[in-house]
Design a protein that fits this description.
The protein is mainly beta. It is built from 5 helices and 19 strands. The strands form 4 sheets. Strands 1, 4, 14, 15, 16, 17, 18 and 19 form an 8-stranded antiparallel sheet that branches. Strands 2-3-5-12-7-10 form a 6-stranded antiparallel sheet, with no helix packed on it. It has a 3-stranded antiparallel sheet with strand order 9-8-11, with no helix packed on it. A hairpin with a 4-residue loop joins strand 16 and strand 17.
């Protein structure tokens, strides 16, 4: 099956910067906060750049060829892959689980993992609560604007991995670039946005009641790299050649985080560089990556 290089959907929010443009080859705006590299979500559809499906959205391709998703993915497409540049702190936020999101938002819930690509000295994330708190304390702190004083902050470095299960209060701090692999959802409840306003002087909406409904009030700490997610992510660095087989069960997404290379199978060949994302359909057989490159290999 054809190897498809993807064109991301570009998002610009008030906390973004220029590193995705400068270091990862992204275009489409003077300031970029996120690129939705592999997305069939209607809020940000990625497109196919090359080959027989050039100019179509990935969502359109998968609707025409549902077999490309694989026999294990006969329902909704399970994953959304992003690059994120946090030049400023992101809002303090939380995502619901599948049950709550289905009832209240008509979407899936959202658990995610972060792979830290760049981190300035002393950069940190918010990652759950520092200690167990009561629902009453959470409510008072959220409405008084003091919720951040109860949260755990953790310094991060390039190469760190974090699992952010649904219900975990979290935020990326300034100076971090991250690859985010998440469930296919766009539901976020903001708890605190530091009193910031947008370009029109308006405060961004908070969603305190829904956040209180779904948040985990216990600490969550980093614990290895085996996560309970509906997809798997493998970190690969290769200096010569990497060969793998894609069977009927699942697609493979490759997000290139370093270097340059060539991806080829029996159907076609694609050149890649840092920042590129490709989608390879299920049942594509032997695939070979050559070059000096690093990438995330994502499948179900």
């Amino acid at each position: 099956m054809y190897i498809m290089k993807l064109i991301p959907s570009v998002k610009s929010y008030l906390w973004g910067g220029t590193r995705l443009i400068r270091d990862y080859g992204k275009t489409g705006a003077e300031m970029i906060s996120e690129t939705w590299e592999c997305s069939v979500h209607p809020d940000g559809l990625s497109m196919v750049e090359n080959g027989i499906f050039s100019g179509r959205t990935l969502a359109e391709v998968l609707k025409l060829h549902p077999e490309f998703s694989g026999t294990e993915n006969t329902g909704a497409f399970p994953v959304l892959v992003k690059l994120i540049d946090a030049e400023k702190d992101l809002s303090v936020q939380v995502h619901p689980d599948d049950l709550y999101a289905r009832i209240h938002e008509n979407q899936k819930g959202k658990s995610e993992m972060w792979y830290i690509l760049e981190a300035d000295e002393n950069s940190e994330i918010i990652y759950g609560f520092e200690e167990n708190i009561s629902p009453e304390t959470a409510r008072h702190s959220a409405y008084d604007g003091n919720i951040t004083s109860l949260l755990h902050r953790e310094q991060v470095h390039k190469g760190d991995i974090f699992y952010i299960p649904a219900g975990t209060v979290h935020a990326l701090g300034k100076g971090i670039v991250v690859a985010e692999i998440q469930e296919n959802s766009n539901v976020t409840y903001r708890l605190d946005d530091y009193g910031r306003t947008d370009e029109n002087g308006n405060f961004r909406e908070l969603h305190i009641e829904k956040a209180l409904d779904v948040m985990n009030l216990s600490p969550v700490r980093k614990s290895g790299t085996v996560f309970n997610l509906p997809f798997t992510t493998e970190i690969v660095n290769t200096h010569e050649k990497y060969v793998f087989h894609i069977n009927k069960k699942s697609f493979v997404i490759l997000l290139f985080t370093d270097g340059t290379g060539i991806v080829r199978n029996s159907y076609n060949t694609v050149s890649v560089r840092k920042g590129d994302c490709i989608f390879i359909p299920a049942d594509s057989g032997i695939t070979e990556i050559s070059g000096n490159t690093g990438f995330l290999k994502i499948s179900t």
